[in-house]
Amino acid sequence: MEVIIQKDYEQLSKTAANIVVEVLNAKPNAVLGMATGSTPLGLYQELVRLFKAEQLDFSHVTTFNLDEYVGLAPNHPQSYHYFMHEHFFKHVNISPENINIPSGSTSNYPAFCAWYEQRIAECGGIDLQILGIGSDGHIAFNEPTSSLSSSTRLKTLSKQTIDDNARFFENRKDVPIYAITMGVGTILEARKIMLLASGKGKAKAIARTIEGPITSMITASALQLHRDTKVIIDDAAASELEMRDYYDFIYAAKPQAPQT
Ligand code: PGA
Fold first, then answer.
1. What is the C-alpha separation between 147 and 168, in angstroms, rounded?
2. Fewer CB within 10 Å of terminal CB in the chain, N or C?
3. Exposed, middle or buried by CB within 10 Å (0-12, 13-18, 19+), for 83?
4. 63: pLDDT confidence band, cut at 50, 70 and 90?
């Protein structure tokens, strides 16, 4: 893992956007894995700015979202379909037929999940997967004790996740209990991964992800097995890392480092 600590949320969002730009420069028809939640909002804003100001082109890009709540229609304001359209897709030149988001309203979840995995494979796999992290250490909706080799499937949300996400709903009881989510195994198949985290509330999960043992209790810790993962966090999210000085040292010395 490469740990990149930035001074604040704005800087981490810009750093993350630069990585997307690098991927698109190398491969204009890249397949991007998209995440929802508060954390990637700054990244999406920066990508929209680059689209408008510098003609960053999404016309050949394909996207796959990580997850969706079960039982929310695509036009429900708390659905991840709605989130993605409002915060990103409607502002850039992506082709609607290239957008893939798990269905929260299919009549056959096992068949849909199998199809979603197959569709990712048909599109050549995910080139860059964007991730947030839950305060319980989840990536996508892979809650504690999820199989670290899991594929897309239905999951029951943890109490912690329901509590965390209740802020977006009028009542806690409105938060869906089930979600359809890419698995940890699906995520690990991406060629590149970047995990973003901001704020003190993520500090413990980030420390356990980077420096703890690999455990299904913190599904993000499975990223230690991935060959090309960048963890981009702000000062507050880095506050519980034991090896923080080392990560800063590596990052500062990177421009002079031998090219690998
Ligand atoms: P957040 O959610 O970005 O809204 O904190 C992250 C997550 O649960 O994966």
1. 28
2. C
3. buried
4. very high
By the 8 A CB rule, do 134 and 209 touch?
A: no
How many Å lie between the centroid of ligand 1 and the Cα of residue 36?
Answer: 7
CA-CA-CA-CA torsion sign (94, 103, 38, 193): negative
CA distance 25 to 130: 17
User: Tokens in use for 119?
Assistant: 């569709």
236-260 pLDDT per residue, tens: 999 999 999 999 999 999 999 888 6
Condensed to tens digits (0 to 9), the pLDDT of residues 8-56 reads 999 999 999 999 999 999 999 999 999 999 999 999 999 999 999 999 9
Distance 194 CA to ligand 1 centre (A): 14
- Ligand 1 pocket member 132 (CB < 6 A): yes
Confirm whether 8 is a catalytic residue. no
Using a pLDDT cut of 90, give the percent of the chain over it: 98
